[in-house]
Amino acid sequence: MFIRFSNDRYESGNALIVVLLSLLSIYLPFIFNSTSVNISDIVFYGLVDGVFAWLFATLAVWFLITRAFNTILEITNLLVFTGYTHGILGLFGLFILMNNYISIPQNVLQILTLIIFGWMYFVLTKALSVAFLLEKRIASISSVTYLFILIFFSDPIRIFV
User: Fold this and answer.
1) What letter would DSSP give residue 97?
2) For 127-158, b where at least 16 C-beta lie within 10 A, e where not — what string?
């Protein structure tokens, strides 16, 4: 089922749309509350930066899986699973929007951040191990690598870490 899903030629484009929507949901509360003149530039460059970080992290995981673990894998199939996993980050926008209307304590926001990244880790690990028949250890190392590179290179995501 996962292989048929990831081999669809439109799914990598759908994954890009999910990534853009998740990044846009992070910026929406800032757009509504900003008085800055160049907010469109901030949002545009933030979206471009976030998409670049997603592509770079996916490429790094693909390189790790194919070279270090000697597994043959198409990058478009990997893009689908990492893109849909990236969609979980859209919850940050919801939490920021809620924080604007009701004050959420900082400790609760930190716990929610850990829950979101943990959820991303478990979703990607499960998807990699089931879809590509990878060992649990390889899928876990790949998921951690993906999240580390994504957090390190994406400025919109680095806000929450």
Assistant:
1) H
2) bbbebbebeeebbbbbbebbbebbeebbebbe
Residue by residue, pLDDT tens for the chain (161 residues) are 555 555 667 888 889 999 999 999 988 888 887 777 788 888 889 899 999 999 999 999 999 999 999 988 888 889 999 999 999 999 998 888 888 888 889 999 999 999 999 999 999 999 999 888 899 999 999 999 999 999 999 988 887 77
- Whole-prediction pTM value? 0.90
CA distances to 89, 97, 153 from 158, rounded to whole Å, are 12, 18, 8
The backbone region for 70, taken as left when phi is positive above 0, alpha when psi lies in -120 to 50, beta otherwise, is: left
The token pair at 62 is 């693909």
Q: Residue 135 is encoded by which pair of tokens?
A: 């060992």
Residue 127 has, within 13 A of its CA and on its CB side, a CA count of 22
User: Which residue type sits at 72?
Assistant: I
List the structure tokens of 38: 């160049």
Element (H, E) at 50: helix 39-63
